[in-house]
Amino acid sequence: MAAKEGGSEGEEFVYRISTAKEWEELQKNGSIFGGELDKSTGCFHLSNLDQVRPTLQKFFMNVKEDLYILQIDAKKVISCNTSLLLP
Q1: Which domain of life is it from (predicted)?
Q2: Average pLDDT estimate for 12-38
Q3: CB-based contacts of 71: which residues, under 8 Å, 6+ apart?
């Protein structure tokens, strides 16, 4: 699911699987530009709740660093190219 203003219809929250590095960047700057997958596809990847586990299994099984699952209010997501801004 690519980031778009307001999230998917009917979704209260969307979820972002982030590395510790991305989480630190978000805390410091208030925005992140995503990981390698996001940059290579030109799309900021978010998940519905039922997509989190399959996404972890498909893309993050070999990640050695800590991962964070961010719960984001879908109404507050603002699309800005491939940057995720949280007001």
Answers
A1: Eukaryota
A2: 87
A3: 13, 15
